[in-house]
Amino acid sequence: MRRLLTLFACALICRADSSSAAEVRPHIRDWGVKIGVLPTGPLNAITDVPGVRVGQVTVSKDGKINTGVTAVLPHAGNLFRDKVPAAVVVGNAFGKLAGALQVNELGELESPIILTCTLCVGKAWDATAGYLLSLPGNENVRSVNPLIAETNDGVLSDIRRRPISEADVLRAIREARVGPVEEGSVGAGRGTVAFGFKGGIGTASRRLPPNLGGHTLGVLVQTNFGGILTIAGAPVGQALGRFYLQDELRHTSADGSIIVVLATDAPLDHRLLERLGRRALLGVGRTGSPMANGSGDFVISFSTSKSPPLPNEKVSPLFEAAVEATEEAIYNSLFKATPVRGPSGTIEALPLAETREVLKRHGVLP
What we know:
This protein is an alpha+beta fold and 366 residues long. The chain has one domain: L-amino peptidase D-ALA esterase/amidase, CATH 3.60.70.12. 26% of the residues lie in helices and 23% in strands. It contains 9 helices and 15 strands. It has a 6-stranded mixed β-sheet. A hairpin with an 8-residue loop joins strand 10 and strand 11 (216-224). 56% of the residues are buried.
């Protein structure tokens, strides 16, 4: 998957500000900006869904390698033996999402979800297959279906070296934990670029009120895509002078990718999870993505519940939760990201002071 045109990459490279790299960057909600109407879970993270775990390994070497692994586990048990309902939704299929066909054919997930870089999918698949085969109780298993997703971090990393190892993947899986999730330029988001700024890992959650079922929905994103950045309706990308189709002389690209991992404890089957995943793409669109030709846009959704699925008329509040949490997770990936230097230079983070002024002018800040 092509990440960005070389011309676009060169246009974004500038000198890093060491002070900005060291600053503690906020979540968008820290500014009092609430995306949507539903409340968050206590952590505002995918791990607000009970049992869900996230593990991350960041691989950064010599200013030439910036990549990593992010693992999402629906539970701490043997996923091959204790599968969960799941679905994969494709917004634009310019990607290498290994394992998606079987997930959609059988409607279930039997492995950790691994996010990494494009040319590392094969390594991640092999390492995850080895992990599953090694689990107690799987001694006679002869087929496993690792689910491996990717975005192309070749702007900031020497991707041709395929720099992740089996140990990196296994560590991300085995160190996956409940609790707070690190965001920004970490794990599989270490080398990503979004809307011309440093992208990365972002997360958010929503909790429905008791009269709507009380269910929790959480999202984790790996952002590496482009478009016309819009934050809570404010035209931030245009105000900052960096956006798709800006002008003929400085044509920027909307190519890239985004992976959305969506978890919920609501009882949903494959069909309903597929419907839910489509709504997450609405959240991607709200941030300014046109899902360009060269962008791989995928949603992986799963439920941790084994109860009978909800009736159709009960799922609309979850659809709203999916849109809101996806939109906010993308903003968090940008807000928490820090500048990263790669082989050709540095991709800067979203400038917070300027962004704050744009949000003020457009009435977004309270």
